[in-house]
Amino acid sequence: MVKPIGAVCNLNCTYCYYLEKEKLYPDDQHRWAMSEKVLETFIAQYIYSCRTPEVEFAWHGGEPVMRGMDFFMKVIELQKKYGGGRVIENSIQTNGTTLTDEWCRFFSDHHFLVGLSIDGPQHCHDHYRTYRNGQGSFEKCMQGLELLVKHKVEFNTLTVVNDYNARYPLEVYRFLKSIGSRYIQFLPVVEAIDPAAGPEELKILPPHSGKIAEVTDWSVDPLDYGNFLNSVFDEWVRKDVGDTFVLTFDSILANWMRVQPGICVYAATCGNAGVMEYNGDVYACDHYVFPAYRLGNIAAKSLLTLMNDPRQQRFGQEKRSLLPAYCKKCEFLDLCNGECPKHRIITTPDGESGLNYLCAGLKKFFKHTEPYFDFMATELQQGRSPANVKRWAATQPRQNS
């Protein structure tokens, strides 16, 4: 995951965990813009480090579109230069508010997959996704979506589930389907902050920081998150399996099948999803851009060397090895795997640290959906379509979420 403009963004979303990362580079003279030299070094190293026929680049921010069209035209040029004939694919995550016909033609011409950040209908989206003057961004985001559709750009959606929109699960889900999203990702927001942090310090804390932390008001309540997933699942499993793809559900089904899930949070270990800042600094993960998790810079060591650093290998393995005993005895361990380590900020009932903040909600979700995932897994094992669950689910009494 690459940050071509660092944490720079035209929005000021209340829950954003990345805007404050500018504080890591307070004296930058180039306004956190990746140079062509860093870009070329990265593309050459990244293509070399990939051993697959297809090489996938992921451009994130901040708002990566703010780096400008010329930068991404250079991206295409350098990918051709170093690609060696391999298939190169690009994805970009955007808030959609600055998209134009020119941008969407570019995405279409070069087959970019666009991830659109949208939190549901207007009252949900505008609750936290605002400009610096407090104005909501929904209308501009929808204008960007219309341009993506107009130019036939492939897109998916990322929805941050927070304390507000978690109360409107079916409204959010049905809205996402109504705008044409067939690939949906729900990202629960859980952030712990240091209330004593000074103006030049990072407020958001990693787990095990040793500081007194407070969970933010906008973090989703664990049981609300479980209810949100259950409500969406109940509609999806009866109507949309095979037509609409919800990444969380696909990943849990993968765990039922004992194959690698599509997202790292439900995998047994992690550490393969590093992030590179605009200046070539590499960190363990997008949610671990803190000085303690900086692996080095690609100008001094190759990307391959940095990602194989023993510290990064240990970081990935600790997702499993540092699970509290409470988790290791849990009946849902093989489905959850402790979820994301950054959410492990509470203690277990017997006082051990490292329990996932969302645990109660995730348990509720796993218990509620167990018979349906079991049915889909059996269908797959028998060489049949998991979409058959829709007919079976219609015969089952609805449970209380």
Which labels suit this protein?
401 residues; alpha/beta; three-stranded antiparallel sheet; 14 helices; 13 strands; globular
Spans where pLDDT lies below 50 across 5 or more residues: none
Number of helical elements: 14
Strand content: 5-15%
Q: Which series of helices and strands comes N to C?
A: HEHEHEHHEHEEEHEHEEEHHHHEEHH
Give the quaternary arrangement of the chains.
single chain
Overall morphology:
globular
Q: What gyration radius follows from the Cα positions, in whole Å?
A: 21 Å
The biggest sheet amounts to: 6 strands, parallel
Share of helix, binned: 25-40%
Global mean pLDDT? 96
Strands side by side in the biggest sheet: 1-2-3-4-5-8
Distance between the termini: 36 Å
Number of strands: 13
Report on this structure:
The relative contact order is 0.11. The chain is globular, with a radius of gyration of 21 Å. The chain has 401 residues and is an alpha/beta fold. It has helices at residues 36-49, 69-82, 101-109, 122-128, 138-150, 169-178, 222-239, 247-256, 303-307, 310-321, 325-328, 333-336, 359-381, 389-394, and strands at residues 54-59, 87-94, 113-117, 155-161, 183-188, 192-193, 214-215, 245-246, 275-276, 281-283, 294-297, 346-347, 353-355. It is built from 14 helices and 13 strands. α8 (247-256) crosses α13 (359-381). The protein starts with 35 loop residues before the first helix and ends in a 7-residue tail after the last helix. Strands 1-2-3-4-5-8 form a six-stranded parallel β-sheet. Strands 9-10-11 form a three-stranded antiparallel β-sheet. A two-stranded antiparallel sheet has the order 6-7. Helix content is 37%, strand content 13%.
